[in-house]
Amino acid sequence: MAQSASEITPLDYTRYDFKNPETYRLRIPKGLNRDVVREISRFKNEPDWMLEYRLRAYDHFVARPMPDWGPSLSDLDFDSYTYYANPLLEGETKRSWEDLPADIKNTFEKLGIPKAEREYFGGVGAQYDSGTVYHKIREDLAAKGVIFCDTDTAVKEHPDIVRKYFGKVVPYNDNKFAALNSAVWSGGSFVYVPPGVDAGIPLQAYFRINAKNVGQFERTLIIADKGAKVHYIEGCTAPIYSTDSLHAAVVEVVAEPFSKLRYTTVQNWSKNVYNLVTKRAVGYESSLVEWVDGNMGSKITMKYPSVYLKGRGARADILSVAFASEGQIIDSGAKAVHSAPDTSSKIIAKSIAIRGGQTSYRGLLHVAPGATGVKAAVRCDALLPDERGRSDTYPYNEIHEEDATITHEAVVGKIGEEQIFYLMSRGLNESDAIHLILMGFLAEFSKELPVDYALELNRLIQLEMAGAVG
Q1: Above 60 in pLDDT, residue 372?
Q2: Is the distance from CB of 99 to CB of 228 less than 8 angstroms?
Q3: What is the rounded distance in angstroms from the CA atom of residue 102 to the CA atom of residue 85?
Q4: Residue 150 domain-assigned?
Q5: How far, in Å, CA of 132 to CA of 234, rounded?
Q6: Residue from 312, 123, 137, 147 nearest 228 by CA
Q7: Are both 185 and 173 inside the same structural domain?
Q8: How much is the pTM?
């Protein structure tokens, strides 16, 4: 007799849905104004140029209207959030795991961070609400000149590199939430890989929201210099509260000529988190940028990883997955902007909407005048396991060169009764049969993940499927 999946892997959401007492060394009261922006900068003892940047961004945030497209954000009250809550004092980021406060250490122990550090990754960072509490890189990578630290530290210790790239890929006036992040950002990862260096082993960061009504606004900047190679992985979780939290990150990625850079995300925010993120990469001559982007959890997600191909022969591969269940709207997709000749891109988007969840693919494929010889392909696959889920596709193709080779394919499907019957005839119950079909649908995504993350994805799908059938 076959074991069910639930017997093999216990469905225990408490791995993610736990919370610690809210004890913070630094915390700002709810609400946002210029004084809050100044206070955040003062806590961090930042240089004048960063404070000035923050204040310009804040003014733009106030002046800019809310987006009039996509999911409704009408319930979002910016004055109901705390914009800075740090369990440590600024500058107290730990390099030794044992130096962390017990409750924070236990949080990340439950989430598997030390295990990841010991067994797989070349560097690990951990952010808890507004504060980066832990950051460490392997000595052999540091000896090669690889820099991996939190972005606050980078502003102080590597100002020349930061000022060269910060806000250049995603300017503060790009959109309302990029402006918000630019005004109140805290934490995030800074990665610099020198010319010709292959980091070899992935670098990982983990972002955790613990307190209710807290906004998390990490700022991540990753640079692969000429001919360098690096793989960066991030994970995200939050406990469940009856009130909402806000996550508005900005990620800037720079792939210099002949470099290769992969950015992998697996998010599992709780269903009370607004996840409003701007992620963008620039690829120069003969570079390769890969986004592997998994979106689960959250109340509303708006995220569209983008690659701007600015050098001849640059390439972009984007693989985006969305899974929406009851009470969730995941509006995700990808953008590829071809500004140089002989560039190529491939976008694969997969989504599953179940129990009333809503998914949308919103994408842009742009070929600029003069960008000859472009090759690009877009594929959108949606799966609706029941009658309640909804999936929409909003593709935008802007092609300004006649010799471009462009393909676009979109498919929406349901799980066939004959598929379920066949698997049940082999000893599976109905729920396990549907789970197996879903994982097969996502196989293209899961095979690109490190083993621990692929197993995690499998468990998360099982959790969402529990009780969905019957």
Answers
A1: yes
A2: no
A3: 18
A4: yes
A5: 14
A6: 147
A7: yes
A8: 0.85
